[in-house]
Write a structure and sequence with these properties.
This is RCK N-terminal domain-containing protein. By secondary structure, the protein is an alpha/beta fold. It has a single domain, classed as Rossmann fold (3-Layer(aba) Sandwich), CATH 3.40.50.720. Helices cover about 30% and strands about 20% of the residues. The chain has helices at about 15-25, 40-45, 80-90, 110-115; strands spanning about 5-10, 30-35, 50-55, 70-75, 100, 120. It has a 6-stranded parallel sheet, sandwiched between helices. Strand 2, helix 2 (about 40-45) and strand 3 (about 50-55) form a beta-alpha-beta unit. The longest helix is centred in the N-terminal third of the chain and has 13 residues, at about 15-25. The radius of gyration is 14 Å and the shape is globular.
């Protein structure tokens, strides 16, 4: 599968994630978002996200590989337990890098141990530089 056929997958529970989705849209990079509840899905829909993957983070039997081809994954941290679940789910969906973007420096080893490729610490709302190598 070609990289251009894959979708970047994003969890965007905060302003930084929302700005990242806008940057993906501006660059014309195909993307999808992940959500685990109807409130989050509604918020993402309101942001203009066309592809939303709903997951039940409690029931492993539902963590089926989506029909949408998943490439790189960018998970913006708002909750340690939720990001840990998302890493476990997304790692089974892609062999591409999983990036965790966090404002906390405490969970780096936990995230790496669960399969995250990179843990990026930032206090900035603009992380569009992560897309500099995307076409």
């Amino acid at each position: 599968m070609e990289a251009q056929d894959e979708f970047v997958l994003v969890s965007a529970p905060n302003k930084t994630g929302e700005q990242f989705i806008k940057a993906l849209r501006i660059k014309g990079i195909p993307y999808a978002a992940i959500a685990n509840n109807e409130t989050e899905k509604s918020r993402l829909t309101h942001l203009g996200v066309k592809h939303i993957l709903m997951v039940d983070t409690v029931d492993r039997e539902t963590w089926l590989i989506p029909e949408l081809p998943v490439g790189k994954v960018y998970l913006f941290e708002s909750s340690l337990p939720l990001i840990c679940r998302y890493i476990q789910i997304c790692r089974s969906w892609t062999g591409k890098p999983i990036y965790i973007i966090t404002g906390s420096n405490n969970a780096r080893l936990i995230y790496k141990g669960l399969g995250a490729s990179y843990v990026i610490y930032t206090r900035s709302d603009d992380v569009s530089f992560l897309l500099d190598n995307e076409s």
